[in-house]
Amino acid sequence: MAKQLLHLVFGGELEDPHGTTFADLENLDVVGIYPDYDSALAAWRGAAQRTVDDAHMRYFVVHLHRLLDPEAEDSKG
After folding, report:
1. pTM for this model (two decimals)
2. Would you state the pLDDT for residue 60?
């Protein structure tokens, strides 16, 4: 069984489009948790595309596996 490399995709409206401070933490959009980077990237692209006309909306991919096991190395994502 391949090692799980969990990734979280989430986003929301930013106070400043050049920053990373969210305007409203109550309304963050949690897209999902994915078993690998490629799946997370596809979900990120979909979410980002839906909000492409809103400069204040931004989505992120968080490498959960790095937070869960910071000592481990991975080859991708």
Report:
1. 0.85
2. 97
